[in-house]
C-alpha cells in the first residue's frame, strides 16, 4: 500500500524540464487557452476594418457631371475632358468617398491607391517598432499600445480634412494594424501546447470582419460616418485587457520568475489544475539564462536587435526566406482584394464574398497543416491559388474578362481561398520558427515582407485598370515562387518551441552533423564499390 502511494505521488509531481512540460501539467489546451485565443484574436475584426476600409473609402463613382449641366453624364475616363467644375452624378449609387469629395480623378486618379500604399508603409514601420518593443518590454502592454494606435488612427481618419491629412491618418492606422497583428501572433502562440498552435493562425475572425465591413459599407455610404463607426470595436479593450496576462514564456526568459509563477497560477486556477513549484520555474529560468546571458552584465539576459538576425547564420537564412514568403502571400492576398474596383458587379457583394473565402480558407489549414506539415501545406495552397489566377490572365488574353464577370469572381474567390489558407500556414510557421527571445521581432520581419508586398499590391491594382491581365500573371508567378521557397525552411510541425537563440544554433549544428555523417557514409560506400569493381 505504501509503495503504491509513493508511485502515484511521484507521477503527480513529475518535475517539468521545460515550458512545454509546464503547459501539460496545467491542463494542456484548457479553458484558459480558449479564453486567451478569443481575447487576442477578437481584434482581428477591427483590424480587418482598418485593412479593407480603403476599398470603400476610395471607391470611384461611375458617372460625373461637368459644370452645371446635369442632363449629360460622363464616365470616369470621359470626365477628364471637362474644363469646368466636376461633380458626382445622381446615378452613382449615392457613393460618398474621398474620390468624390476631393475629386481624385484624371491627373489625380493615382492618389487614392497611393494613399493605400502609404497605409502599407505604416504597416512596415509598425512591424519593426512594435515587435521589437514586444521582445524587449513584453507582449501585454505592446499589444495594448498597438490596439490604441490602430483605433486612434481610424478615428482621426474620419476627421481628415484633405488628402494629405487622410494619408497621415492611414499611415498611423497601418502602424497600429501591423504591430497589433504581429504581436498577437507571437503572444497567442506562446500559451498553446504543441499540437494546438495551428489554431493561432487559423481561427481568427478576420474573414468575418471583412464581411461585416462590406455589410456596413452597403448601408452606410458616407465614408466619414462609416470610418467613425469602425472605431467602436476598440472599446472591447476595456473588457479584454484585464483578462490577458503577460506571456509566462517571455517572463521566464527575462528572469522574472516570481511574476511568471503568478501568471501560471492564474492559468492553473482557470484550468482547474495545481500550479507548478516556484523552484521548478527558477531552475528552468536559470537553464535558459545560461544560454543567452548578457556578457557585460551576467545578471541579465541578452537583448537582441534586428541586426542580430543577419549576423547570426541560422537566423539570417530563415529570416530572408520567410520575408520572401510573407511578401509573396501578401502581394497576392491584397492584390486580389484591392483589384475589386476593376471587377464588374457590386463591390459590396464582391468584398463580402472575399471575406467569406477568408473565413473558410484560414480554418481549412487546420485540416492539413498538422498532417502534411507547414511547408507542404503552404506550397500546396499557393500553387493551386496561382493556377486559378493564371487561368484568369489567360482568359483575359484569349476572350476577355469583360464577357465573363461571373467566372472572374469565382476564380478570384477560389484564388483568395487558397491564399488565405497559405497565409494561415505561413503565420504559424513563422511563429514557430523563432525562439522566444526574438519571436516577436522575427514575426515583425515577416510582417515587413508582408508590408512590402502590400505596398506593391495597390499599384498593381491601378495597373490592372489599364491592363487587366497583368496583375493576375504577376500574382500567379509570385505565388509559385513563394511555394517553391517554402521548402527551404525548416519544418516545425510537432516540435516544441525554442526559447533561446543558442538552442536554434545547437539544433542547426546537430542537423549539420547528421547531414555530414550521411555524406561521409555515402563517400565510404562509393570508395568500397570502386575497390570491389577494380580488376585484380
Structure, described:
There is one protein chain. With 536 residues, this protein is mainly α. Helices cover 70% and strands 2% of the residues. It has 23 helices and 3 strands. Helix 17 packs antiparallel against helix 20 (405-433) and helix 19 runs antiparallel to helix 20 (405-433). The model is unreliable at 1-12 and 505-519 (pLDDT under 50).
Uncertain runs are 1-12, 505-519
Give the helix proportion (percent range). 55-70%
Q: How are the strands of the largest sheet arranged?
A: 2-1-3
Mean pLDDT: 80
> Rg, please?
26 Å
The strand count comes to 3
Question: Helices and strands: which structural class?
Answer: mainly alpha
Query: Strand count, sense and closure of the main sheet?
Result: 3 strands, antiparallel
Count of DSSP H/I helices = 23
The end-to-end span amounts to 74 Å
H/E series, N to C?
A: HHHHEEEHHHHHHHHHHHHHHHHHHH
General form? globular
Q: Percent of residues in beta strands?
A: under 5%
Amino acid at each position: 500500500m505504501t509503495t503504491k502511494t509513493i508511485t502515484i505521488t511521484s507521477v503527480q509531481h513529475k518535475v517539468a524540464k521545460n515550458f512545454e512540460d509546464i503547459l501539460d501539467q496545467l491542463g494542456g489546451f484548457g479553458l484558459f487557452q480558449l479564453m486567451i485565443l478569443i481575447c487576442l484574436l477578437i481584434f482581428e475584426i477591427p483590424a480587418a476594418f482598418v485593412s479593407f476600409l480603403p476599398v470603400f473609402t476610395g471607391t470611384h463613382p461611375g458617372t460625373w457631371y461637368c459644370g452645371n449641366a446635369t442632363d449629360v453624364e460622363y464616365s470616369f475616363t470621359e470626365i477628364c475632358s471637362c474644363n469646368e467644375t466636376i461633380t458626382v452624378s445622381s446615378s452613382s449609387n449615392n457613393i460618398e468617398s474621398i474620390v468624390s469629395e476631393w475629386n481624385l480623378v484624371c491627373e489625380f486618379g493615382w492618389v487614392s491607391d497611393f494613399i493605400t500604399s502609404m497605409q502599407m508603409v505604416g504597416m512596415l514601420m509598425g512591424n519593426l517598432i512594435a515587435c521589437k518593443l514586444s521582445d524587449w518590454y513584453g507582449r501585454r502592454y505592446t499589444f495594448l499600445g498597438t490596439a490604441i494606435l490602430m483605433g486612434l488612427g481610424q478615428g482621426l481618419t474620419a476627421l481628415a480634412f484633405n488628402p494629405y491629412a487622410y494619408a497621415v491618418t492611414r499611415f498611423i492606422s497601418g502602424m497600429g494594424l501591423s504591430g497589433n497583428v504581429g504581436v498577437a501572433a507571437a503572444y497567442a502562440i506562446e500559451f498553446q501546447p504543441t499540437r494546438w498552435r495551428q489554431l493561432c493562425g487559423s481561427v481568427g475572425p478576420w474573414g468575418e470582419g471583412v464581411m461585416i465591413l462590406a455589410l456596413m459599407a452597403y448601408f452606410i455610404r458616407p465614408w466619414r460616418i462609416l470610418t467613425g463607426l469602425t472605431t467602436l470595436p476598440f472599446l472591447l479593450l476595456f473588457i479584454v485587457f484585464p483578462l490577458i496576462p503577460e506571456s509566462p514564456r517571455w517572463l521566464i526568459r527575462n528572469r522574472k520568475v516570481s511574476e511568471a509563477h503568478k501568471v501560471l497560477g492564474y492559468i492553473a486556477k482557470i484550468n482547474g489544475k495545481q500550479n507548478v513549484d516556484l523552484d521548478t520555474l527558477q531552475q528552468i529560468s536559470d537553464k535558459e539564462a545560461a544560454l543567452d546571458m548578457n556578457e557585460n552584465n551576467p545578471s541579465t539576459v541578452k537583448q537582441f536587435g534586428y541586426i542580430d538576425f543577419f549576423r547570426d547564420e541560422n537566423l539570417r537564412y530563415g529570416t530572408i526566406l520567410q520575408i520572401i514568403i510573407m511578401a509573396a502571400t501578401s502581394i497576392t492576398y491584397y492584390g486580389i482584394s484591392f483589384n475589386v474596383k476593376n471587377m464588374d458587379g457590386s463591390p459590396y457583394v464582391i468584398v463580402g464574398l472575399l471575406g467569406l473565402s477568408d473565413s473558410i480558407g484560414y480554418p481549412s489549414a487546420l485540416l492539413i497543416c498538422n498532417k502534411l506539415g507547414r511547408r507542404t501545406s503552404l506550397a500546396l495552397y499557393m500553387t493551386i491559388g496561382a493556377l486559378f489566377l493564371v487561368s484568369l490572365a489567360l482568359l483575359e488574353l484569349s476572350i476577355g474578362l469583360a464577357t465573363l464577370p461571373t467566372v472572374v469572381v469565382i476564380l478570384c474567390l477560389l484564388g483568395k481561398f487558397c491564399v488565405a489558407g497559405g497565409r494561415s500556414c505561413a503565420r504559424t510557421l513563422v511563429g514557430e520558427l523563432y525562439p522566444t527571445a526574438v519571436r516577436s521581432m522575427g514575426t515583425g520581419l515577416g510582417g515587413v515582407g508582408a508590408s512590402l508586398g502590400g505596398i506593391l499590391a495597390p499599384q498593381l491594382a491601378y495597373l490592372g485598370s489599364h491592363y487587366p491581365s497583368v496583375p493576375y500573371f504577376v500574382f500567379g508567378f509570385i505565388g509559385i515562387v513563394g511555394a517553391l521557397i517554402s521548402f527551404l525552411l525548416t519544418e516545425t510541425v510537432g516540435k516544441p518551441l525554442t526559447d533561446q537563440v543558442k538552442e536554434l544554433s545547437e539544433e542547426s549544428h546537430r542537423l549539420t552533423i547528421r547531414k555530414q555523417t550521411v555524406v561521409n557514409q555515402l563517400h565510404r560506400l562509393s570508395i568500397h564499390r570502386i575497390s570491389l569493381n577494380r580488376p585484380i
